[in-house]
Design a protein that fits this description.
Resolvase, N terminal domain, globular, four-stranded parallel beta sheet, 34% helix, Resolvase-like_N_sf, Rossmann fold, Resolv_N, alpha/beta, SSR_resolvase, single chain, DNA binding, 112 residues
């Protein structure tokens, strides 16, 4: 069994509630972490780095957390990206496909 380094990405469109101890970003991360844990028998391990964007709409790729995630995928530091829902990555399917196609060429497999 090979180790799969898993990054969790979370995004919330509005800033409302981000100052609370437990918010939508935390709920997304918690659900994703539980999924990664459920795949532990397959070698999945959650990376400690946080890739979050709070208060940023999904229609733009200019998000600090997303850009760091893509940079780390390209650098080979991430094997699998876990999101609560695919629309957390982007609202535009064409943009999403283009970004992930670019990333998968550098070694990060995409699930289909």
């Amino acid at each position: 069994m090979s180790l799969k380094r898993c990054a969790i990405y979370a995004r919330k469109s509005s800033e409302e509630g981000l100052d609370q101890d437990f918010n939508s970003l935390e709920a997304q991360r918690e659900a994703c972490a539980a999924y990664v844990l459920s795949q532990r028998h397959e070698g999945w391990r959650e990376l400690p780095e946080r890739y979050d964007d709070g208060g940023i709409l999904g229609g733009t790729m200019n998000r600090p957390g997303l850009q760091r995630l893509l940079d780390d995928v390209r650098a080979g530091r991430i094997d699998t990206v876990v999101v609560y829902k695919v629309d957390r990555l982007t609202r535009a399917c064409r943009t999403s496909r283009r970004s992930w196609r670019s990333s998968t060429r550098r070694g990060c497999p995409s699930s289909r």
